[in-house]
Design a protein that fits this description.
Helix content: over 70%
Oligomer: single chain
Distance between the termini: 54 Å
Number of helices: 2
Number of strands: 0
Radius of gyration: 31 Å
Shape: rod-shaped
Largest sheet: none
C-alpha cells in the first residue's frame, strides 16, 4: 500500500483551513506581544517609582533618628539643637529635590519606553 500525499483536489478545505490557522496564529502573537511589552514597560516605571519612594522614606527615617539623637544629646542647648535641626532639614531638602527631579523625569521616561515597544 503506497502512502500518497493528499492533493489539493482530494481535500481542498484542509489546505485552506491550515493556511487560515497559520495566518491567525501569526496575527494573534503579533497582537499580544506589544500589549505584554507595554505592560512590562509600565511595570518597570512603577518599580522605579517605588524604589525612589523607598529611598526617600529611608532618608526620612534616618533624619528622624538623627533628630531624636540631637534632642537626647543637646536638649539643654538651643544653639546646638538649631544647628542640628538645620543640618538635617538641609539634607531632607536635598533628598526631596532629588525626588522631585526624578518624578519630573519619569513621565518622559515612561513615554520613551512605550514608544520603543510600539
Amino acid at each position: 500500500m503506497s502512502k500518497r500525499k493528499p492533493e489539493s483536489s482530494d481535500a481542498p478545505g484542509m489546505e485552506l483551513s491550515s493556511q487560515m490557522m497559520e495566518w491567525w496564529a501569526q496575527q494573534w502573537t503579533q497582537g499580544v506581544n506589544p500589549v505584554a511589552r507595554i505592560q512590562l514597560a509600565w511595570m518597570q516605571s512603577v518599580s522605579e517609582v517605588m524604589q525612589q519612594e523607598t529611598r526617600f522614606l529611608m532618608a526620612m527615617a534616618d533624619a528622624s533618628r538623627r533628630l531624636a539623637e540631637c534632642y537626647d544629646t543637646h536638649a539643654g542647648d538651643p544653639e546646638r539643637m538649631g544647628e542640628c535641626y538645620r543640618s538635617i532639614a538641609s539634607e531632607i531638602g536635598d533628598h526631596h529635590m532629588e525626588r522631585m527631579k526624578t518624578v519630573a523625569e519619569m513621565p518622559n521616561e515612561f513615554r520613551r519606553r512605550i514608544w520603543e515597544e510600539i
